[in-house]
Amino acid sequence: MWKKARTLGRGSFGLVSLAISQPNDESKLNLPSLMAVKSAETFQHHSLQKESNLLTELNDCPNILRCYGSFISNDDDNNSVPLYNIILEYASGGSLANRINTSPGGLSDYKIIWYTKSILIGLSHIHKKGYVHCDIKPHNILLVGGSLPFGLRRNKLEQETVKIADFGLAEKAGKKLKIEGTAMYMAPESVVYREYESWADIWSLGCTVLEMITGEPCWKCEPGTETCALLFRIGFTERVPEVPSWVSKEGKDFLRKCLVRDPKSRWTADMLLAHQFVSSKIIIPVRELMKKY
Question: The Protein kinase domain covers which part of the protein (predicted)?
């Protein structure tokens, strides 16, 4: 069915490899020539199976990473070990985290608005299906397609498609869970009450958008800060991530709708899609002109 090429990284519950579909099988299974395959030993397969089932249910949204199916194979390095594999869309553009890390001072206004709107479309679909992603962050936002550098693309057909990925922690809304997710992007109610409703994803989105704007983590932490200290700050103080004064009024207002400690006061994904920050037909400046670069 496919031949493993190289390791791409590690997801929540498995190793991710680049794979090349075999010519004889590609036409039968309608697989793309390049895929990403997430694998785990079969005794750990439950999380991958859950992710595969969920992605299959969400497959009709263009801003969610596509899943082509699952199967069991033998480990290439140890044929006695069976692996559970899910076949995923290959994100040739890498992750949003990589894009931020290679863009000192933050992303361009156009990219921030395009990426934010795309993530919101994906979140709206997830939430309407009754799920919560539970780990929205730049590492779990992937970029698919786009053969030309961003500045040279003349139309939307040449743009990257933004995809929400890694549903290993996703759950039905309303469940009481152990503390899950990545501390930097966790919502206060998830830390204090272990609550994971759709609004927890909106807080994480706000942290992600702020990171796109500044190019820096949303919470300023001294080197060596313990995770428990950050969780205490998020859950048991009245603080929220600081929005720089040079962010435009539209950008500030959008972030305030996401980064409000009372979860029921946060806007929904659909409400945010109607916000001027992402809905305007012209590009709304993200930064005030007086910012010094």
Answer: 2-278
